Amino acid sequence: MNDVTQILSAIEQGDIRAADLLFPLVYDALRKLAAARLADEDPGQTLQPTALVHEAYLRLVDTNAQRWNSRGHFFAAAAEAMRRILVDRARKRDSAKHGGGRVREPLDEARVMAPAVGEDLIALDEALTQLAARDAEAAELVKLRFFGGLTSAQAAEALGISPRSADRVWTYARTFLLAALQESSA
Fold first, then answer.
1. CA 7, CA 9: separation in Å to the nearest integer?
2. Neighbour-count burial of 132, counting CB atoms closer than 10 A to its CB (0-12 exposed, 13-18 middle, 19+ buried)
3. Helix (H) or strand (E) holding 27
4. Are residues 94 and 119 in the same domain?
5. Cβ count within 10 A of residue 78
6. What's the alpha-carbon Rg for the chain, to the nearest Å?
7. Can you give the CATH number for the domain in which 81 is found?
8. Would you state the pLDDT for residue 109?
């Protein structure tokens, strides 16, 4: 680890290439630190230790960033950078713009688009009519995918929209139809 101290000194003196030499030397230790930090997070955390290490490292080697007195100081700064990243993500996740305190509920595509035996297809047709009144493109996409048997890419091409737009419209249409079917069954 004496090499780490020398490289940190070179970075402090303005050697830009030194940062490239530092990362391989400290990567394993930073990854263990990141894994320990993420182990305390709630289940469902999508940030992986590798991504956390990379993001923290980018913050640390910024040429305008704080200088380190020693190897220990560097790792303390790395831990603090990781903590700030995790806090920023938690704040973003809890903000009203990003869903706030809402709980995610899986949307079972088969439950929405393929009524079970005995389920009323008339209710599905009525829900599709409501969707068409609100968003004709979404209703057309449902018809192509559900009744026509087209894939998302094929339906997108038929409608003249991008596959990504088709996926967004498909998600919206499934959600709308699920809500409409639940409302009609109540």
1. 5
2. middle
3. helix 18-39
4. no
5. 21
6. 26
7. 1.10.1740
8. 58
How many Å apart are CA 4 and CA 151, to the nearest integer? 53
Residue type, 78: A
CA angle 175–43–164, rounded 5-degree value: 35
DSSP string of 35-66, one letter each residue? HHHHHTSPTT----HHHHHHHHHHHHS-TTS-
Q: What is the pTM of this model?
A: 0.47
C-alpha closest to that of 52 among 66, 33, 71, 67 = 33
What's the pLDDT score for residue 115? 47
* Token digits of residue 109: 């595509």
Task: Identify the CATH number of the domain in which residue 116 sits.
Answer: 1.10.10
The string of pLDDT tens digits covering residues 94-118 is: 776 666 666 666 666 555 555 444 3
Instruction: State the pLDDT at residue 98.
Output: 60
Structural domain that includes position 143: 109-185
CA–CA dist 40, 2 (Å, integer): 31
Phi, psi of 19 (to 5 degrees): -60, -35
**Do 94 and 132 have their domain in common?**
no
Answer yes or no: do 114 and 92 share one domain. no
Token couple for 7 = 């490289």
Residue 37 tokens, joined: 């930090």
d(CA 60, CA 34): 14
Into how many domains does the chain fold?
Answer: 2
